[in-house]
Design brief:
The protein is an all-beta fold. The protein contains no helices and nine strands. The chain has a domain of 86 residues. The protein binds zinc ion. The site of zinc ion has 8 residues, from loops.
Length: 155
């Protein structure tokens, strides 16, 4: 495999953008998207995705705010997937390896998972580097909509 074969071109948007998971990110799309989570009013813990009851066993509070989470964080770990996952994953044709990452959000110090943007050279990923949240198509549906999901890229 050549160096360039690892990097998909940036995805071009052609259709109407719809969220892959409604309410999981700020919407409509912007160039500064954020994940949307919960913050417990009693203990201050953050959760993603949103929860109705605090998952802190010492708290179990039921009064939580819906809050946008930090756009930025540090790369905690990542993995490159060289095998095409089964459905419901909708692979590009031909399949191109992709990376998933866990990011520790700057303010919340909470770890969240997501894919790395498709045009990222995986060899440039370094544990601890600054990352930011973006929206990118996960796939194009049968109606031609770009189904958008959060991903991370080096900041
Ligand atoms: Zn709590």
């Amino acid at each position: 495999m050549t160096e360039t074969a690892r990097v998909m071109p940036a995805v071009e948007l052609s259709g109407k953008q719809i969220p892959a998971a409604s309410g999981w990110t700020t919407w409509p799309p912007s160039d500064k998207p954020q994940l949307v989570g919960s913050r417990c009013k009693s203990c201050g813990d953050y959760f993603f995705p949103k929860v109705g009851v605090c998952s802190n066993p010492a708290c179990m509070g039921e009064d939580l705010d819906e809050v946008p989470l930090s756009r930025t964080g540090k790369l905690y770990t990542y993995a490159v997937n060289y095998y095409k996952p089964p459905a419901p994953y909708v692979p590009p044709d031909p399949f191109v390896p992709y990376a998933t990452a866990i990011i520790e959000l700057d303010r919340e110090k909470m770890k969240v998972q997501g894919m790395v943007v498709s045009n990222c050279d995986f060899t440039q990923l370094k544990i601890g580097m600054d990352m930011e949240t973006v929206l990118e198509p996960l796939y194009r549906d049968a109606e031609g909509n770009d189904v958008m999901v959060w991903k991370f890229r080096p900041a």
